[in-house]
Amino acid sequence: MIPLAVRPAAQAAELVQLLRQHGHAPLRCPLLETIAGSELPHLPDLLHRADVVVAVSLHAVHFAHDFLLQTGQTWPHIEYFAVGQASADAFAAVGITASCPDDPRSEGLLALPDLQQVAGKRVLILRGNGGRDLIANTLASRGALVHYCATYERHYPELDGETLTHHWQAAGVDSLLITSGELLQRLLVLVPDHQLPWLFDRLLVVPSPRVAEMARTAGFIHITIAQGASNQALTAALELRKME
């Protein structure tokens, strides 16, 4: 298959390598860039006061860890949670065991037994700039004291949607690997309206039922839900569809 990988450059490079190992001929086109967040200087103090840390993405973990390394600091011995397997794997890569739900969504995280009784606990949520507030609002309603730290920021590169779409068509792209609702929206904004029928007819691999519903509402026809946003989960989902 000829899948299009649109996640940020570092993760897209890893994904492309993995896809090639499985016999695919992927095309890489990052639609989103991530840079260090402006709130990182507050991270050490926030971690020092936290009882629980929640990471909403692997980028949140990567940028936080890089900052701690640069400043000669370490992760404290407290409770860690990850929304999805990709975030849990990022924690594992730096020596931290993080609890992770089978359902890779905010709703899945909030259903974990260890997050039901959090009254009085200080919870630090590592994320990018902006995003859903469901985790913070729900934990606060359960009595937790919640703080955010934007460890990274998202930036969109300037791209010509018409030219890109023609390039994808000429390359024979037959599938799209989308790891978030944000990337899905970015793709829909970039592709010209008259090219949307072509886009909607591609196989779309998404990380969760929530993103799948967004895709159906937009007009996508062929949707597969992977077991999370990790490169391994995306590749496994594509492999399953290839064998059908």
From TrEMBL:
CDD domains named among the record's database cross-references: HemD (cd06578)
Pfam families named among the record's database cross-references: HEM4 (PF02602)
Reaction(s) catalysed (UniProt annotation): hydroxymethylbilane = uroporphyrinogen III + H2O
Keyword Transcription annotated: no
Domain Tetrapyrrole biosynthesis uroporphyrinogen III synthase, chain residue ranges per copy: 14-235
Metabolic or biological pathway, per its Swiss-Prot or TrEMBL entry: Porphyrin-containing compound metabolism; protoporphyrin-IX biosynthesis; coproporphyrinogen-III from 5-aminolevulinate: step 3/4
Record EC number: 4.2.1.75
Enzyme class per UniProt: lyase
Keyword list, A-Z: Lyase, Porphyrin biosynthesis
SUPFAM superfamilies (alphabetical): HemD-like
InterPro entries: 4pyrrol_syn_uPrphyn_synt_sf, 4pyrrol_synth_uPrphyn_synth, UROS/Hem4
Gene3D superfamilies reported in the protein's UniProt record: 3.40.50.10090
Family according to the record: Belongs to the uroporphyrinogen-III synthase family.
Function: Catalyzes cyclization of the linear tetrapyrrole, hydroxymethylbilane, to the macrocyclic uroporphyrinogen III.
Annotated protein name in UniProt: Uroporphyrinogen-III synthase
Organism: Aeromonas veronii
